[in-house]
Fold this protein.
Amino acid sequence: MSEIKDRRKILVTGSAGFIGFHLSKILVEEGYQVVGLDNLNNYYDPQLKIDRLLELGIPSKKVSEYNKLIRSGKFENFGFIKLDLEDRIRLPALFSQEKFYKVVNLAAQAGVRYSIENPTAYVDSNLVGFANLLECCRNFQVKHLIYASSSSVYGQNEKIPFSTEDNVDHPISLYAATKKSNELMAFTYSHLYGFKTTGLRFFTVYGPWGRPDMAMFLFTDAILNDRPIKVFNNGNLERDFTYIDDIVQGIYQIIQKADNSQGHSLYNIGNSKPVKLMEFIEEIEHQLGITAKKNMLPMQKGDVNRTWADVGKLKKDYEYSPSTPISKGVQKFVEWYKSYYAL
Ligand SMILES: NC(=O)c1ccc[n+]([C@@H]2O[C@H](COP(=O)([O-])OP(=O)(O)OC[C@H]3O[C@@H](n4cnc5c(N)ncnc54)[C@H](O)[C@@H]3O)[C@@H](O)[C@H]2O)c1
């Protein structure tokens, strides 16, 4: 007999990360019982992760002091634990104790460029860690796993906009290959064990509390500190920049919709309005009131020329409707950046 679970009990992995933090916040505000998990690794400054957790009411500590489930002082329905997806002892123990109804997996080693120098980080978190998570979902009767894939799986596909119907068998970075692997693994687990899995291919997410390794942050930081920005492929790139609130709203709609369907499904989640890199830079310059010094460089290995999401399927199934124009999104990021760094 399957046990009775609290339908509003959710695990968010990567909850100290950029997207996981924003998603956790909206879920606790909407009354879900949320446990956040993250290994607080130092791929970028862990202080930013600790500060995001502080916004969720988790007191600031040394990284090593988050090992037990800590309750939030601000939201009684939020708790956080520092844990590695690779940990085959503590991960199942957490699932056994907490009895999650749904899981949103946002923990991963992110970043295309870093995967060229540090392949093992991707194997550990994105392949071994993801497999462990699937095993836990299977063994502890999770009803629905929603997980992060990436627009990078489209590689150098030329047909635009990118559709989930397109062939994605030619990833050009190990990062993209691990994300494509996650889609295959999730499909298999849904097929074998019946629980529902939903993959989301995110398209260049940006906004307040954003990642320091991404263009929005790197450019703002360099311009304000009078350093030149690195403009790859001589600026000849296009990205479907998607504002964080639109992303989180999309994930939220999927979580919220009570539906009994099973199996694996896959969606693009983007803005569906690609922006030229030089226009993106102009928008940042405009918001900062400073002209950037530009170091024009060739294309980087592993990078793709253009991304553009066809989001028709997500609109149809979950009424997804991204609404933030780049001008507004950049303004919001710059406001946050200035206040966070007290400029
Ligand atoms: N931000 C984007 O534009 C974007 C685009 C495509 C896909 N994604 C995917 O979305 C997800 C969230 O991305 P983000 O931008 O919030 O990145 P992020 O790096 O800010 O967040 C990921 C979090 O996961 C944690 N983590 C990494 N490996 C872990 C492990 N093995 N065990 C436990 N925790 C671990 C990290 O400490 C980090 O806080 C990732 O899967 C990423 O690959 C993001």
